[in-house]
Description:
alpha/beta, Rossmann fold, 9 helices, 50% helix
Amino acid sequence: MSETRIAFVTGGGGGIGRAICSALAGAGHRVAAADLAADAAREVAKSVDGLGVKLDVTEPDSVAAAVAEVERELGPIDICVNCAGWDLFIPFLDTDEAFTSRVLAINLAGPIRVTRAVLRGMLDRGWGRVINIASDAGRVGSSLESIYSSAKGGLIAFTKTIAREVARNGVTANSVCPGLTDTPLLDTIKAANPDAARVLDAMARAIPMRRLGLPDDIAPAVAFLASEEAGFITGQTLSVSGGLTMA
């Protein structure tokens, strides 16, 4: 088992985030679940004997306060998992400035902001793991997800750049890219747009493993990248998609 570390998981109250919190706790780490839905974060934290904190990744003051609370209650953050995310399926020409700003604020600027808040401490201590939950949409594109794909593609590029900058300091940075995954957000997307439901159903039929991904399919990849054993792996982009996308 890896040494016990302090893990900070944004979006920790959601489907994938919840599974990641459980996997990291199962690996022996102390886990802080951070989420805009504070009650959900506290519920997850209770299930893993960790800490639940309210976090809005789009607000600098909220990020600073959440990080400070975690470090005060649990200790310095060693593992940062940026999992908070949001999207709707909308054709590009139907998107507007407000939608674009929201998607970029949550999915790209948010992880950048959180990483900035925790990275210096990792460098000072000579050990750290930054794991960003991107998406296969950011690797290969995805119909009706132009802004989200752009944000996640940017997150992958950001992760690689950070990996290059901090590699000599004992800190790694990697991206995990879920494919189509059965989460509450997926249900919201399908309910909001009949076209989205048709696209998603077509994608599901194209998965070689013949099923949607589950949050528990994503979490083990994150737990591995957070481990001591993954210390020579950095700047990588790992797709967990049941083979929907390859290479």
